[in-house]
Amino acid sequence: MHLRSVRRTLITTTALGLALASAPAVAQPRTAVSTNAPVKVVLTVQGPDGRLFKGRIKTKGHEVTTATGGTHACDGTNGGAHPSAVPTPTAALDDAARKRHFTWDGTWYASFDDYTVDTIKNVDGGGVAYWNISVNGTSIPVGGCQFKLNAGDKVAFTWTAF
Ligand code: B12
């Protein structure tokens, strides 16, 4: 009786082990993956005396070069904001500048791993204002190379008095 019980337990355990080993892998839930595929956004540059630029720009995160700040990544990985490259506001400005042949300049701050955008089309803050960066009407809480853009976003660089 005792032997039969042990054998039954062994058979059940083996069968269970085999069933688990051959069970199909449990499907992983799909999570939103950040990609650096190009997105189209609407970029506006609003200066002190009116609009300096408005257009639809195809953009992705990329390395940028400024006269004052040098060459650095501007793809959302700045400051560890995103684990992989994504489109960003400052990269969108850079794409617009290259495609529509205007200039911008920015200072690199290693402490933030980001630029401040200081001059667009040779317009600076003149000590009384700065270039505010907003996306869909909201001022972004991080630098322009750290914020992730999505397709259709409205990106604005607005000359704003302190
Ligand atoms: C004052 C200030 C500003 C001033 C700086 C000029 C001035 N007249 O003083 C102005 C108004 C220009 C400014 C702008 C912005 N700022 Co600011 N600012 C500050 C603040 C309150 C104090 C900085 C300071 O004086 N430190 C003391 C001095 C001695 O140290 P410092 O290193 O020399 O300071 C310089 C830098 O901080 C730099 N700076 C200021 N803001 C930013 C933002 C970025 C992204 C970078 C790279 C550098 C930078 O300007 C300072 C003066 O030269 C900090 C908050 C804080 N408590 O640190 C936020 C702060 C640095 N700013 C911040 C942000 C997000 C911005 C903007 C991107 C906001 C926006 N949506 O437009 C813009 C920059 C836009 C652009 N053109 O690129 C964030 C940065 C967060 C991050 N991880 O990137 C902070 C930390 C506020 C926050 N959200 O918590 N800012």
Describe it.
The protein has a single domain, classed as Ferric Hydroxamate Uptake Protein, Chain A, domain 1 (Beta Complex), CATH 2.170.130.30. The strands form three sheets. It has a five-stranded mixed sheet with strand order 2-1-9-7-8. A two-stranded antiparallel ribbon has the order 3-4. About 14% of the residues have low confidence. The chain is built from two helices and nine strands; from the N terminus they run H-E-E-E-E-H-E-E-E-E-E. It is α+β, with helices and mostly antiparallel strands and 162 residues long. The longest helix has 21 residues. The structure holds cobalamin (B12). Cobalamin (B12) binds next to strand 6 and strand 7.
Instruction: Decide which structural class fits the backbone.
Output: alpha+beta
The number of helical elements comes to 2
Largest sheet properties: 5 strands, mixed
Cα-to-Cα separation, first versus last residue: 90 Å
Distinct compounds present: cobalamin
CATH class: Mainly Beta
Give helix % range: 10-25%
> Would you identify the CATH architecture?
Beta Complex
Average pLDDT reading:
87
What is the CATH topology classification name? Ferric Hydroxamate Uptake Protein, Chain A, domain 1
